[in-house]
């Protein structure tokens, strides 16, 4: 599932191709993904200028203008969505069974959205109503923004008795921290995922907010190296190799650990809220 760094990588791939361009033709190859497309989606986008490709949490926000009307395309990649970019003059292959949306741009470039499981979403919102849109209005601070800090995190966790790992995956607390980066951030901060959320305050909250920022930034950097190479690989944006410290590493020693795995069992995997959590019981308290 694309998490925030993957979505940001897609945004960085799309921005130079789309911004300042116009949609020449929007082709929808079915009527819905997770939800039906707005009936007038293609009509409202055809011919529209593309002002900006932004992101809020895991939503791409494509700001458009057409005949004095400003709309934002709200675009979620779902569980399995991938984006491919074809430069002007590149041969665009015949659409496969999961290539559901194709944007032909005035420049001659083409953007194809492939979504095998169809959990993705595209909808349109007038620009002046974006902040109040039901998909966006309750989302907490962006983790990489200046609005997110230790004190802000501590305030959001105050009074919560749920495990801190589950709390930081709540988008109202902080935007876009999914299952993988929740485990990674807690490891980096030395905080047990089982700790009650309200006990993460003061210096601990500073450490956790800093760890969330640094682990997401490192992952985005890893995505950036994929971006530089993507024309030479298979052209797909949104998935890349990032080396996790604890995620998916049950039974291994955690990085920097001097413990004997035969005795300690190494990185432990537990279930929290139906999702796997990975952590080091020795170094995370
Ligand atoms: Zn360890």
Gist?
This protein has 285 residues and is α+β, with helices and mostly antiparallel strands.
Total strands: the figure is: 11
Q: Report strand order across the widest sheet.
A: 1-6-7-5-9
Shape: elongated
Overall pLDDT level: 92
Q: What's the Cα radius of gyration?
A: 21 Å
Low-confidence segments, ≥5 residues, pLDDT <50?
230-234
Description of the structure:
With 285 residues, the chain is α+β, with helices and mostly antiparallel strands. The protein folds into 2 domains: 4-132, N-terminal domain of MutM-like DNA repair proteins (Alpha-Beta Barrel); 150-279, Orthogonal Bundle (Helicase, Ruva Protein, domain 3). Helices cover 27% and strands 23% of the residues. The chain contains 7 helices and 11 strands. The chain has helices at residues 4-18, 41-45, 150-157, 164-168, 179-189, 202-229, 261-264; strands at 23-28, 49-56, 59-66, 69-76, 82-86, 99-105, 110-114, 121-126, 236-237, 268-272, 275-279. The strands form 3 sheets. It has a 5-stranded antiparallel sheet. It has a 4-stranded antiparallel sheet with strand order 2-3-4-8. Strands 10-11 form a two-stranded antiparallel ribbon. The longest helix is centred in the C-terminal third of the chain and has 28 residues, at 202-229. The chain starts with a helix and ends in a 6-residue tail after the last strand. The model is unreliable at 230-234 (pLDDT under 50). Zinc ion (ZN) binds next to loops. Zinc ion (ZN) is lined by residues 254, 257, 259, 280, 282-283.
């Amino acid at each position: 599932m694309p998490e925030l760094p993957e979505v940001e990588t897609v945004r960085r791939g799309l921005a130079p191709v789309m911004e300042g361009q116009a949609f020449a033709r929007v082709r929808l190859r079915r009527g819905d993904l997770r939800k039906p497309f707005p009936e007038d989606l293609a009509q409202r986008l055809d011919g529209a200028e593309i002002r900006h490709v932004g992101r809020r949490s895991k939503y791409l926000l494509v700001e458009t203008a057409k005949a004095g009307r400003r709309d934002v395309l709200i675009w979620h990649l779902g569980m399995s969505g991938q984006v491919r970019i074809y430069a002007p003059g590149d041969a665009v292959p015949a659409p496969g069974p999961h290539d559901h949306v194709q944007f032909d741009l005035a420049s001659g470039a083409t953007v194809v959205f492939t979504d095998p499981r169809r959990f993705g979403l595209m909808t349109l919102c007038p620009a002046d109503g974006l902040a109040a849109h039901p998909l966006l209005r309750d989302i907490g601070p962006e983790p990489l923004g200046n609005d997110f800090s230790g004190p802000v995190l501590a305030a959001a966790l105050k009074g919560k008795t749920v495990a801190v790992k589950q709390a930081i995956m709540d988008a109202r607390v902080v935007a876009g921290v999914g299952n993988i980066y929740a485990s990674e951030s807690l490891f980096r901060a030395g905080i047990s995922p089982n700790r009650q959320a309200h006990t993460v305050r003061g210096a601990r909250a500073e450490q956790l907010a800093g760890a969330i920022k640094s682990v997401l930034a490192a992952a985005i950097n890893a995505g950036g190296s994929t971006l530089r190479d993507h024309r030479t690989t298979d052209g797909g944006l949104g998935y890349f190799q990032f080396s996790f410290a604890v995620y998916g590493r049950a039974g291994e020693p955690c990085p920097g650990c001097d413990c004997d795995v035969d005795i300690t069992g190494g990185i432990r995997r537990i279930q929290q809220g139906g999702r796997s959590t990975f952590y080091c019981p020795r170094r995370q308290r």
